[in-house]
Amino acid sequence: MKKGVFLYLFSLISVLPAFAQMRTLTGTVTADSSGTPLPGVTIHLKGSTYRVATNPDGSYSMSVGGTPELQFSMVGYLSRQVKVGPDMTRLDIKLESATSRLSEVVVVGYGEQSQQYTTQAVSVVKAADFSNVPAVTPQQLLQGQVAGVSMTNSSGLLGNASLLRVRGTASITAGTQPLFIVDGVPLNDGTYNTAYGGGAALNPLLEINPDDIESITVLKDAAAAAIYGSRGSNGVILIATKKGGYRQKTQVKLDYATGWVSPTNKVDVMNGDEYVNFFNNYITKAIGESPITAPASFTDWPSLVSRTGRNSNYGLSASGGNEKTRFYIGGNYAKDESFVIGNNLQKLSGRINLEHTANRYLSLGVNFNTAYTNMDRINIESGAQAPYTRGLLNTPVTPAYTNNGQYANPTTNTLANVYLSTNKYYTRRNTGNAYAKINITDYLWLKTDWGMDLLETEERYRRSSKLSTGTNPATLGTAGRALWQDYKWLTTNSINFDKRFADVHQVSLLAAYSYETARYDDIKVTGTGFTSDQFLNVGSAATNTGSATGKAWGLESYIFRANYRFKDKYLIEGSLRRDGSSRFDAEKRYGNFWALSGGWIMSEEKFIRNLRFIDYMKLTASYGVTGNDRIGYYDYMGLYTSGTDAGYAG
């Protein structure tokens, strides 16, 4: 009895500090521009269902503990997320009106526009919207941020390409990924056949550091994407990186973030006793197998193939400028561990962006990013042989180790396959552009832009002879090595006109010529039969085979766009692009892609302007034609092809 009383008192004392940490947090929420108190603002304690709302005078009061994160949201205003300090008891917040962003200039195809006057379906995510979002790849920044954009992981492989869909799937047999453009440079993407393990989907944004991004613009409808012609049918994602500011003091930023990942919603599998009982009572009767005897100890395979993975991210950047020059320099190192054994990712990247105004007529700039990645991906994409899958399929009576500590049945042992093999995947990527802008007058200028995307990928694979069946030395142990080079160069030259007439007519014109060329080469070598596992090179194998391929591609484009705005209320825009792609037959190589859109800013009319519940109201209509060249380099040369029926989930 005394022991029970002691345990009760100890438990009571243990929970007292948790209650003592709770405190009351008060504050007022006001409008950023006017300072007007905002009633009805929802304040959500992230990670819980606890919510409160502000009073008619904008004040609030809520109970918090520790250092929670609060989200402030209200219709017509931009949401804010704020982390509460450990001793903070008052927090006043200002919310920015959603309409205040309408006057911001956003990146669109081959230029910039005021978001207020765009007539197309364009969504913009600013750096402030994802400044607190932990992300390894830029795609993760879009998750839940843009209406009409869905994202799913193509596999559990770290760094693998996420499946992004802008307003659904636009093709059954051709590519369905959107076109990714970073600072005006379209990025290479696709799927490479690896030396071992099947195809590896290339993530076109893996080498881009999310902390370097200033904004992400999604062109969602045909009118917005038509200016990218034969590559616009799946939508276009424009990424603008940070540039620094003119007359800005140098700012240095150091970031470090770490976290842990472990499997959730684990599959409920039978334990050892349950499996033995199930096998002896049901399987033996169903297929005539002999009963099994429970071993001295069972094997928990799901626990052996999973772990608590840790991810770490280090970032250092500097930005600033004077009257004529602005700059941004950033570096990043990221290390990511999956919760599945055999899958790790390391990434090192650096960026430099410079812009210099030589005089009133000439400005020059350069954007350059270099990155290196190192990935372990043993059997991750090998279907039933993937470690986590095998961990669920292996029975608890199947041992992982022998009595002397060796791997039991190494040829079929999941742990042996992981720890007696290596499968390294490396990428080296240099992406950037250099540009010059010549101002002829205040409203007429020329711009020339030269860009590149140079991607080198390497795979190294080695499988121990202990994992081979048979005793023939010529078949013991395998190795493979593959090298890919995917190089792209492009140039875009444009003339631009933007002028206002009689204070009511705004006219903007663009005419441009663009040319892209790309070269793809790969070399793959595999070897079988090693006298020792100490020999790592493919050349040491008894038998080796190799293959090499090369491909080339080109795209020539003529681009035109016209914008007209009357009294800042009535809008019309048209674009035309003529693309010539080497992926198509010579007789059908060129195609025309055009769009027409119009808009009416109704909130500028007198009969709506006085309605207090309407801040901004715009009616738009658009029509556009886009294409999809995501096919093979030389598919047009084929006469026939065979395959399974294409299904369509419509």
Automatic annotation (TrEMBL):
Q: Which UniProt keywords apply?
A: Cell outer membrane, Membrane, Signal, Transmembrane, Transmembrane beta strand, Transport
What GO CC annotations are associated with the protein? cell outer membrane
Instruction: Kindly give the Gene3D superfamilies that the UniProt entry links to this protein.
Output: Carboxypeptidase-like, regulatory domain (2.60.40.1120), TonB-dependent receptor, plug domain (2.170.130.10)
InterPro entries for this protein: CarboxyPept-like_regulatory, Plug_dom, Plug_dom_sf, TonB-dep_OMP_SusC/RagA, TonB-dep_OMP_SusC/RagA_CS, TonB-dep_rcpt-like
Give a single Pfam family match. Answer: CarbopepD_reg_2
Localisation per UniProt entry: Cell outer membrane
Keyword DNA damage part of the UniProt annotation: no
Asked whether the UniProt record includes Membrane among its keywords, one would answer yes
Supply the SUPFAM superfamilies for this chain.
Carboxypeptidase regulatory domain-like, Porins
User: Which first-to-last residue range defines the signal peptide?
Assistant: 1-20
Highest taxon of source: Bacteria
Membrane-topology descriptor: Multi-pass membrane protein
- Domain TonB-dependent receptor plug, by residue range, is 115-236
Q: Could you say which protein family the record assigns here? A: Belongs to the TonB-dependent receptor family.
Q: What is this protein called?
A: SusC/RagA family TonB-linked outer membrane protein
Q: Which organism is it from?
A: Chitinophaga pinensis
